[in-house]
Amino acid sequence: MPSGSSHSDIPRHVAIIMDGNGRWARERGLPRREGHRAGAESVREAVETCKEIGIKFLTLYAFSSENWSRPKAEIKALMELLERFLKKKAPEMHRQGVRLHAIGRLESLPKSCRRELERVIEQTSSNQDLDLVLALSYGSREEIVDAARQLAREAAEGGLDPESIDCESFAQRLYTSEFPDPDLLVRTSGECRLSNFLLWQISYSEIVITRKFWPEFKKTDLHQAVEEYARRHRRFGAI
Ligand code: IPE
Ligand code: IPE
Ligand code: MG
Asked: pLDDT tens across 107-150, in order?
């Protein structure tokens, strides 16, 4: 452990805002969907690298609530790509011991996509090497509102004392209740914002922003982000 570090060098949970597919394509004179296609390859590589490093949870921001405001053709291309990715890559992920999860308002996804997602989630449910969480039609504010609504419902039904609500019981109603909070948050393409991603869960995550576009984010880049993480001194408010 490097001096000054007060945590394990290996983050247990890495979350990634996979940004910059469109700009990567534009720089090459290609349609945006080609950027998304190339981005899917980086997903495969990120999963493999996490396994190599010994990271146990990887959460990928794949489609936000706000992304529904994009042109219909781009949304269609993204959904088709997701479905194809699941069909093509599921056997390999399964072999690698990857367990798939999805968070977000999944009911908004096209039926065929949802079916494929549910199939792979079910198929991989007993795998234990890496938990891969796809954030799809995901918005952190919506997630927090859903949790508040759930608590209000339980209180109105009489089973829950409002005074008993604390951070832990709140977190238990989030879509991420089964997962630890991310230790490391990576955002590609140089944007310094959260774009409605895991607002509650990243309260104390270490943030690494790289200028690389997502399709160019490869094994060495993830290794570098983890090395940067290992150099950080996490204090959690203490001294
Ligand atoms: C990230 O790349 C993928 C999604 C948000 C679905 P973008 O599509 O946002 O690419 P840029 O940011 O426009 O370059
Ligand atoms: C964030 O990227 C969402 C995903 C990576 C899925 P965006 O490209 O949608 O974010 P903004 O619009 O630049 O904030
Ligand atoms: Mg973007």
From this structure: 999 999 999 999 999 999 999 999 999 999 999 999 999 999 99
Contact 193, 3 (CB under 8 A): no
Single out the catalytic residue among 9, 21, 67, 129.
67
3-state secondary structure of 132: strand
Cα gap 182→56, rounded to integer Å: 11
Ligand nearest to the CA of 196: 2
Domain annotation covers residue 78: yes
**Closest-lying ligand 2 atom to the alpha carbon of residue 18:** 5
Calpha distance 39→25 (Å, rounded): 10
Residue 127 in tokens: 């795998």
The rounded Å distance from CA 210 to ligand 2 centre is: 15
Nearest-angstrom CA–CA distance, 149 and 196: 19
In a domain, 121, yes or no: yes
Say yes or no: CB of residue 43 within 6 Å of ligand 2. Answer: no
Q: Is the per-residue pLDDT at 4 higher than 70?
A: no
Tokens found for residue 67: 């992304």
| Best CA proximity match to 39, nearest among 78, 95, 67, 88 | 78
Mean pLDDT of all residues in 15-36: 98
User: Which segments within the chain are labelled E, that is strand?
Assistant: 13-17, 57-64, 98-103, 130-138, 184-187, 206-209
Instruction: Indicate the number of domains in the chain.
Output: 1
Q: Is residue 155 part of a domain?
A: no
Q: pTM for the full model? A: 0.97
